[in-house]
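Reader question, answered in our methods column.
A reader sent in the components of a multi-part assembly and asked whether the whole thing could be modeled at once rather than chain by chain. We filled in our standard form and ran it. Here is what they sent:
COMPLEX SIZE: three components
ENTRIES:
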Amino acid sequence: MTAIATDVDTSPTPPLPRRRSRLRRRNSLIGWSFILPNFLGFALLTLIPVVTLFYLGFTNWNIFGTANWTGLANFQRLLGDTTFHTAVLNTFYYAVLHIPLTFVVSLGLALLLNTKLRGVAFFRTAAFFPYITSIVAIAVVWNLLFSPQYGPINQLLHFVGIANPPTWLQSTTWALPATVIVSTWRDMGYYMVLFLAGLQTVPRELHEAARVDGASVWQRFWNVTMPCLRPTTFFVTVMLTINSFKVFDLILVMTNGGPGNATLVLSQFIYQTAFVQNQFGYASAASIVLFLICIVVTIIQFLINKRRSA
Amino acid sequence: MSAITEPATLQRSLQELAERPPERDGRAPRSRGHRVARVFGYIVLVIAAAALLVPFFWMVSSSLKPANDVFSVPVKWLPQTWDWSNYVNIWTHSNIVVWIRNTLVLAVAVTILQVFTGSFAAYGFARVKFRGRDALFLAYIATIAVPWQSYMIPQFIMLSKMHLANTLWAIILLQAFSAFGVFLMKQYYETIPEELSEAARIDGLSEYGIWWRIMVPLSVPAMASLTLLTFVTVWNDYLGPLIYLRNPDLWTLQLGLQTFVSNQYAANYGLMFAGLVISVVPIGIVFLFGQKYFVEGIATSGMKG
Amino acid sequence: MNRKFAAAAAVSIAATLSLAACSGGVSTAPSATSDNKPVTISVSGWSLTTTPEFQVLADGFHKQHPNVTVQVKDYDAANYATLLTADLAAGTAPDVVAIKQVTDMVTFASGGQLVDVSDVKLSDGIKGASSYKLDGKQYAIPYRLDGNVLFYNKDLFKAAGVPDPDGTWTWDDYTAAAEKLKTGLKSAGSSALPAYLHTWNSQVQSFATAQTPKADMLSGNYAYMKPYYEQALKMQDEGLQLPFATASANKTTYQAEFGKQQAAMELMGSWYVATLLAQQKSGDADKFQWGMAPVPQRTSATAGTDKKPVTFGDPTGFAINVKTDGAKLTAAKEFLSYVESEKAAESLAQIGISPALVTDAVTKTFFGQQGIPTDSLSKFAWGSQKIAPQNPPSPKTPIASTALTAMHSAIMTGSTSLDKAISDAGAQFKNQAG
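And here is the structure of the entire assembly that came back:
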């Protein structure tokens, strides 16, 4: 977006250096005045603890007592920690499955439900319901649905002739994909809401014009809707990515990392190390790794977005 | 994107658009094929909606069962006898009114603060160019990338020293200044054409005036979705109140219910689900009736031309 | 801007950490006596509305020391350790802290948060105190100790025509009885299963650790658990108990499985007695005749009412916050001394809690509860088994726990072979414990 530093002065000569720097300072002040209310709260309550956390990653703090600087010892330990490796791999596996699936499903839902059909409000509410339902209820119900012997899903699979259906959440192979399914089912309403808001920025006249020109539904979607939606898709992609790497609550309640370590993700590894094994410095180091993963991916997305919008 | 910049022309074209009979959505099915497709579509949607509501159905069903019947092999989807005592128990024996009051206070306060400071800050990030802006924004996003459990203890120690732990303020402060709101609003502001603000600036409006008079009204869908999502997050938040709100007078709904139904060895799931049903119904209603704000009518969507 | 950032960050980090470090202070010497001046001490407890033991102890202590008021602070039961940790770190924890898990004691003591209470005299015959010893010092005093017993449904046994347990069972006898129960129950028309094994990993592993000589949970070598897993898998495969996968998916509860007569036998901690009695009274559980028997043994050497059967269990106790001093410290120590006394044990037995100190008077009180089976085998099972510690007091215990929990679900769901899972768990433990 263009800056507001454009001078109203219409004289042909370029503005004097002093004027430009004064303008810059004025912009800074104005910019900061907008940001300050939110930033103060954010800096005090979130930024400071997060920076503290980064510091703790280089110490051996165990919540009580002093934090002794240990340099890169925690990170070296992480390199050799096979459980950590498992957690990282599981997290990536989960993210790679969850991100595209949720993106497509929630965008599809938003497009489908962005109409004025009668009763659409009810369907939108239904799509949002999994997100507002208690996680405990979700974990219980999906465990029941996926139950190996008596669960409806396997009974259905038996019915259509599959003799040995997978044991889903009780299997080390299928547990993670199963949690992806549940997680997508839960999140799609949330991202649908974000997409719905974004779809309101797509001008209807453009659609009309394109239709008059003979463009098909797909062409209209790809050439009109998607470009207009870019700020929203960027936002959704970033949030979806970060949330996927950070996934914790749902998996904890559904499988607790099991069976074995099949669904152990980074956030749970961090929680276990900090609160069960009481090694807070080590857990902080793992948090830093999680953070770095998220940030690298986010920066890549930022760069792609910048190039696209240029 | 479009050549329409003059407010007057804009106004006129909007008028025409608004007066044109609604085309795409409300029109009657032209052909029999269309009608069949529509009925089929409805059936699919109804089935999908039913599938989405299964856990809620399970919650209601379990809340009507005695404790030892909730989990069984094989699963009983419907209660054998409809036992309403769980609901009675919660309303009469627990402090649910206090919990609802606390939760409402928190949700409303946090939502208002989040929406307004967030959109205010988002304007600064989206429209005002100043040194360090992008780095600062990245720092905002970066903090979202850190799981809360990681820094919850240093944060707790800090708030305790400030004597804010065990007060509702702790939760309000923790949730109100999230980077999420800033990010959401910033992205939305970027879809609003620069020309509108330019015109307003020429007319002599200050940046603050532009924010209030132009950006805010045009971003109602985004603000509506931010309001809803923030409200839901605070309403369902469990860990934050667990750590910070120790005084039973301060408990929120989720916290109070969990404590009410559990003891050391087990939770009375029937009772817990009754509580969760009570807790989810207000949100569902808010969503059902607040939806129209995400999907604004024709009047404003045309402005983006 | 960046420099200001860094400076502010440094200051806040230093502040946060120095404040946290302050919580490891040294307490001043206790005053001579607390018998005269009024003193108030705060004690942490959990789920007070459903866990009456804390108030019972507080009231009993107050009767003995009228000048001391005991305030019990309510904590959430499921997240007790996290909440107490946060409070200790922030310096707002109560004077006396209840120790829910042995590993909590280790965490707090190694962090310098607990007072050394080696000088609190323990009653003769009290069990479980060794679980609270770290580096030779006693950091907490136990007030209750729940050992695992075998609950069995007398009515179902009679219906199936199988003789009740007689206290001499080994694991083979247990399996054999289950097999007989399976056919017997079927012909009696009952849909109950012979046994129910709850999904906790302790239900297989802790028996192995307790009953195998020289078994060490912290060795990283878990091959000694193999026979126990083979037994559990056998029971599962023969249909003698619910498969782990189903129990896990359907989140079956041990209260419902035994209380609603879905299973004829169940291994569970003695805390279940109070729950079962209460549920039978309220109608949440069926009304049937039941009893307690010693848990199955590894060999007949320890099996029998004339021998010492081995089971496992962990104590629950109290410790003193290191920030407590002066008159409060004296009062706190007196509170600790009270909770392990016979008087406290009797008051606990009255409400169905299994105290750490079991004497004849205590046994009499416990078995005076309404509805409790009073046969001699039940009394023997409850009071005379050797209760080996479930969790050794060591910083490595939580590391072993996480590895063993993963191992349990991997084996019992059939996802991993027994040998591989055992070696994986050992590798994980050694890798993380260093």
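What stands out: Chain B has 16 helices and no strands. Residues 1-13, 20-27, 297-305 of chain B have pLDDT under 50 and may be disordered.
Send us your own complexes using the same form.
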